[in-house]
Amino acid sequence: AWDNVGNWTNSAGLNALPDNGHAYLTAGGASYAVLCDSVQPAISNLTVENVAPYRTDLIIGGTLSHLGGSAIRLLRGSCLTVTNNGVWTYDGLNRVTDSNESMISIRNGGELNVAGGMIVFTNLPISTTAYANHFNVGYGSTGTLRVTSGRLEYYERAPRAYTNNNRKLYIGRMAGGVGSMEVSGGSVLLGMEAGGGEMMNVGVGGGGGPVGSPQGRVVVSGGELVFTNNNGWNLVKIGQNYGAGTFIVTNTGAVNLRSG
Asked: What is the chain's percent helix, strand, coil content, to nearest 5?
């Protein structure tokens, strides 16, 4: 259960339930699940990790929110699922010092599933170009994002709080990155008020290294993936800076490009 204090540690390494400080769900040596099935106090940084071959499942079936400036890390042996009635929000300005991994990073085999609930990461423009609000799936290693039902919203609200829109959904990023995004139902909504910066990069490297590293793969076999901005252009890049990208739309999947 969420309130099992033995599963959690804080920034001092002490057992403590999540609050507006760090929340580390990193107890290893066994597989276990933690359920958030009610409204919880807003938390700051979140890290979920276990040691091989064990797995930690964090299931959000209630309401969980992050304060602005939070860093979310889904690492080895982790699986976070937002299920029916679950709402996971990040509504605020990012101040994460790591401008690359930034707001959320799924790597080292971590997984994120939307299965009936909602992820609402909005109101994201920031006040300085030193930071960013990137959503990384497969940063320098493997990571998986699945949407089977429900909604994933990753965009800015209007009117904008600040003009810096330094944020992208990366699927496979940097050398060694292998990212996978699978949409088989529900909806993924990506939006940017101003033009000039793409919303999604599939397979993007750092400008050097062997061709094909990293690798990104997006498969939309059901549901919908929607891109929206005022200009209606420069929405997605597939393969960049030595990276390799694959983008597949099949079966009943739909990809919509919208302006406005």
From this structure: 0, 50, 50
DSSP annotation of 210:
S
Among residues 223, 132, 147, the alpha carbon closest in space to that of 180 is found at: 147
Q: Which two tokens stand for residue 251?
A: 């079966």
* Distance separating alpha carbons of residues 10 and 202, to the nearest angstrom: 34
Helix (H, G, I), strand (E, B) or coil at 5: helix
- Dig out the tokens for 258 from the structure: 């919208």
Q: CA-based Rg of the chain, rounded to a whole angstrom? A: 17
Render pLDDT for 186-237 as a digit per residue (tens, 0 to 9): 999 998 765 556 789 999 987 666 777 899 999 999 999 998 876 656 678 8
Q: Which of 157, 42, 33, 134 is nearest to 88 (CA)?
A: 42
The predicted-structure confidence for 6-34, as pLDDT tens digits, reads as follows 889 887 888 888 877 778 999 888 999 99
Q: Distance between CA 14 and CA 31 in Å, rounded?
A: 21
**105 touches 99 (CB < 8 A):** no
- Strand-pairing partners, residue 190, are 154, 227
CA distance 215 to 221: 19
Q: How many residues are recorded in the chain? A: 260
Question: What are the start-end ranges of the E strands in 20-109?
Answer: 23-25, 32-36, 46-48, 56-60, 63-66, 72-74, 78-83, 87-91, 104-106
Rounded CA separation 167/134 (Å): 5
Task: Compute the distance between CA of residue 65 and CA of residue 39 in angstroms, rounded to an integer.
Answer: 9
| pTM tops 0.85 | yes
- Indicate left, alpha or beta for 163 from its phi (over 0: left) and psi (-120 to 50: alpha): alpha
Helix (H, G, I), strand (E, B) or coil at 98: coil
Q: Is the pLDDT of residue 98 over 70?
A: no
